[in-house]
Amino acid sequence: MRETVPLLHVAAGTATGCSLALTARGPGWLVAPGVLAAGLAGAGALARRRGWPHWPTAQPHPLGDSHVALATGLLVAQTGSPVVWVLPTLVAQVPVARAKRRLAATA
User: Where exactly are the transmembrane stretches of this chain (predicted)?
Assistant: First the structure.
């Protein structure tokens, strides 16, 4: 149940963002980051629930990347500039790498 609630939040955010992107003029391309974020979060929740091998060391990537995709979509939608596409990815690399190193040490 604890994994379902964040997944529902991502799904709700994705559905809302996609509906806004498709009804407004111009930002229809933002549907792709929303769908990517939902897919990554879903893969992360499924892998954790099923206990995939080596999951603890791989976990930071799909879960962190789902948040990066959501933040990227928000920044691009707010600023209107695709240049900010790179900013969340660069900022998120340090925490994702630290989490991966910490999880690998405990696994």
Answer: 27-47
